[in-house]
Amino acid sequence: MCEQSLHLQESVNGEVSASVRLAQHGDIPILESLFLEFSGWPLQRSDSIQEAIKDPNGELLVAELEGQIVAFIHQIFFIDPLHGGLNSELTSLFVKKEHRRKGIASKLVQQSLKNAKRRNVVEVHVTTREDNIAAVRFYEANAFRREGLLFECNP
Ligand SMILES: CC(C)(COP(=O)(O)OP(=O)(O)OC[C@H]1O[C@@H](n2cnc3c(N)ncnc32)[C@H](O)[C@@H]1OP(=O)(O)O)[C@@H](O)C(=O)NCCC(=O)NCCS
């Protein structure tokens, strides 16, 4: 399990204080609204958010500022015989617009990387669109390397 509460103090002016913790059942309504803001697709997500919270092969973390959830990251872990061990993927990462560039996503990713290390994960993957400049710059700034292309289809 992830460290339950990691206190963060990161900002340009030093006034922002956020905490990171595992998502809980009571967070589902706010997480649904954040997933909607993130995706723009209106879907019923409460069941899958609940599953993600309970999933032993995943961690859904939230970041709070003054008691309000302002960001989340979802990470999954899976057996990868190719790499001879466990791999991990960061499937979603979102920070509310008004709280960006305060280091919140960096702290969430650093916590996810710690979780991966603790589980002896071989590699951590993340995908984003080429035109998502903020995300591309963000992952580059967080030591991710460009590898390969993403293909998608609907089974
Ligand atoms: C990408 C995203 C998660 C970054 O969150 P954030 O909390 O603002 O990121 P941080 O403050 O930790 O940024 C760390 C570094 O990443 C880079 N970065 C982040 N946003 C950037 C931007 N808009 N333009 C250029 N570089 C950026 C910078 O190097 C930044 O350091 P700096 O502020 O000292 O220059 C956020 O913009 C977001 O939620 N976007 C919408 C959802 C999304 O695209 N998610 C990722 C794809 S799955």
Describe the structure.
- The chain contains 4 helices and 6 strands; from the N terminus they run E-E-H-H-E-E-E-H-E-H.
- The chain has 155 residues and is α+β, with helices and mostly antiparallel strands.
- The chain has a single domain, classed as Gcn5-related N-acetyltransferase (GNAT) (Aminopeptidase, 3-Layer(aba) Sandwich).
- A 6-stranded mixed sheet has the order 1-2-3-4-5-6, with helices on both faces.
- Strand 4 (68-80) and strand 5 (85-95) form a beta hairpin.
Count of the domains: 1
Instruction: Evaluate the radius of gyration.
Output: 15 Å
Distance between the termini: 33 Å
CATH architecture: 3-Layer(aba) Sandwich
* Main structural class: alpha+beta
In N-to-C order, the SSE pattern is: EEHHEEEHEH
**Share of helix among residues?**
25-40%
What is the class in the CATH system?
Alpha Beta
How many strands appear in the DSSP assignment? 6
Q: Give average pLDDT, whole number.
A: 90
Bound molecules: coenzyme A
- Beta-strand content estimate: 25-35%
CATH-assigned homologous superfamily: Gcn5-related N-acetyltransferase (GNAT)
- Total of helices: 4
How can the largest sheet be summarized? 6 strands, mixed
Strand order of the largest sheet: 1-2-3-4-5-6
As for the CATH topology, it is Aminopeptidase
Shape: globular
